[in-house]
Every structure is written in structure tokens, then in C-alpha cells.
Amino acid sequence: MKVFLNKINESWIVDRVRNEWIELNGDLATPSVKNADIIWILSPWLWQKVSKKRLEQKKVLCSQYHFDFENYDFDDFYKLDKYVDEYHVISKKTEEQLRTLTDKKITSIPFWINQNIFYEIKNKKQLKSEFGFSENDYFVGSFQRDTEGHDLVSPKLIKGPDIFFEIVKEIYKNNKNMKVVLTGKRRGYLINKFKESDIPYVYFEMASFTDLNKLYNLLDLYVVSSRIEGGPQAILECGISKTPIVSTDVGVSSEILAAESIFDPKNFLKAKPNVDYAYKNSLEFAIPKGVEKFNVMLRSLHES
Q1: How far apart are CA 228 and CA 250, in angstroms?
Q2: Predicted TM-score of the model (pTM)
Q3: CATH fold for domain 124-283
Q4: How far is it, in rounded angstroms, from Cα 203 to Cα 181?
Q5: What per-residue confidence (pLDDT) applies to 11?
Q6: Where are the domains of the chain?
Q7: What is the pLDDT of residue 137?
């Protein structure tokens, strides 16, 4: 069995997934679509970069992440759907959405988590010292983009940055030692809101994996405030690094986090992190176990 994975080149989690899968499965991966038995379309909006002739000749697996039905191109989906043999989704919630659109086989598996990159660092005092922070600082984190790409100012509302801001504002009202930790590109909306409100924050735009893991371990709380999500991968990254996390009921949150860690924006203060519960569930998707779940899916498709 040979698998061709299309390139994304968007500095996105899926770029990392592609590179890791190829690195861990060198005997199965092929850079040649001609020599592939399976075409794995990791990024559905790039499907037209593969020739229709090859899509007709090969088994096709397509990963889907989430559907914003109010702003979705259904015509493009159905053009792709006629070539797809099986869909992969990373959460049960996306599976439910996708079942309203197609009768093709759907397999739901969260992307694996690399525990060699993300892991617990127990000496928090030393970490704070390394970054020049005070022992008394209370850190709340968000590591995913919050701003639309077209102007780098407008909020990407499906990610819920407005919800995150209101949560942070409420925490800061009661704890003046709070600081927000941001990473990643397109954080302009929240940065502007924090400046306007005099809420302290630190921003690490392009943190290395080493620093990203350290930043997770610094946090007293990570908040997923999205309205729509496929993952997000931050849930597994927090889980495996034992970072306290609470989340809206999106993506894989209900599959990884305890019920008390999932909140409605109207009652955020009731949410409580359950580190041990999230860690235990995240271990199910650690390497190599998490990768093998995908290889079972691929072998089944190949043999069908």
C-alpha cells in the first residue's frame, strides 16, 4: 500500500501532521500520485490540484475539519464528493455535520499527539524565571488565531475571540496578577482589545515547539472559546502536557475533556479543569498508538 498526501504549506497543524505521518511511515508514503494506491486529501480546498484522472483511478480519502454551514461552498463539496471513497473527520461533531451531506463512509479519529514535543514540565517556578515572569503571575492562554486574514483586524468569530476577551476581562477584574499569553499569527483583534482595556498580555508570534511546550506548562488556564471547531489540537496538547483547560462544547472537547471542563459562554465561571481526565484521554492518541489508528483506516480503505 502506498499513500500520497497533498501538500498544504499554510503553517497550519495539518502541515505538521503530514510531515509527521511521512516521517513515521516512510515505507507507506510516496511523493508520486501516479504510484499511490490511496490519495489522502489532507486539505479539502486543495483537491483540485490533483488531476481528476488520478482521483478517478485511485482510492481517495479526504479529511474534513469543520463546517461553517452559513459560509460554506456546497457546490465545491459535491464536486469533490463524487471522487471520495471515504472521509476522515477529527471529531464526532464534524461527523454528524458531514452525515447530512454524504452517504460515503466516515471515520472519526482525532489527530495524534506527539508526546515527545508536548509533555509536562513540573518545575513551574523555574519556567517563570526563565521567561522573566513573577512567581505570582497568573497566566491565561490562547494559542490559535483570532483575526480574519483579509485585514488582520476583524475578529474570526467562529474562533470566539470576543468570548475569550470577555472571559479574560472577568478574570482580570478579580485577579490583577493575571496576564494573557498569546502565540501564533493573526492575533491582532485580541491584542488591540487588550491595549484598549489595559489588560496585560505577552505575545510570542512564532514560538518554536520547544518554547510552545514551555508556554503551555506556564499556564494556569487555557481557554478554548470557539463557536465552531474541528479539533482544536490545543485540547490534546493541553491534555498531554497536563495544562489546565476549559472549552466550549466544540470539536473534540466532549471526547477528551470532563463534563465539568466544558462551558457555555454565559456560565464560564462554573467550568473547572480536570487535568487527570484530559491526560488519560489524550494518551489514547499519543504516538505510536494514535498514528496506528490512521494506518488501520488506510489499510481498510486499501482492502475495500
Answers
A1: 6
A2: 0.93
A3: Rossmann fold (3.40.50)
A4: 6
A5: 61
A6: 3-112+287-303, 124-283
A7: 94
- The secondary structure of the chain, three-state, reads CCEEECCCCCCCHHHHHHHHHHHHCCCCECCCCCCCCEEEECCHHHHHHCCHHHHHHCEEEEEECCCCHHHCCHHHHHHHHCCCCEEEECCHHHHHHHCCCCCCEEEECCCCECCCCCCCCCCHHHHHHHCCCCCCCEEEEECCCCECCCCCCCECHHHCHHHHHHHHHHHHHHCCCEEEEEECCCCHHHHHHHHHHCCCEEEECCCCHHHHHHHHHHCCEEEECCCCCCCCHHHHHHHHHCCCEEECCCCCHHHHCCHHHECCHHHHHHCCCCHHHHHHHHHCCECCHHHHHHHHHHHHHHHC
Sheet containing strand 221-224, edge to edge, reads 201-204, 178-183, 138-142, 221-224, 245-247
Do 92 and 255 meet the contact criterion of CB atoms below 8 Å apart? Answer: yes
Same CATH fold, 124-283 and 3-112+287-303? yes
pLDDT at 45: 84
CATH number of 3-112+287-303: 3.40.50.2000
Residue 10: its pLDDT value, please?
65
Supply 249's cell numbers.
462544547
Q: Write out residues in the chain with pLDDT < 70, as ranges.
A: 10-12, 150
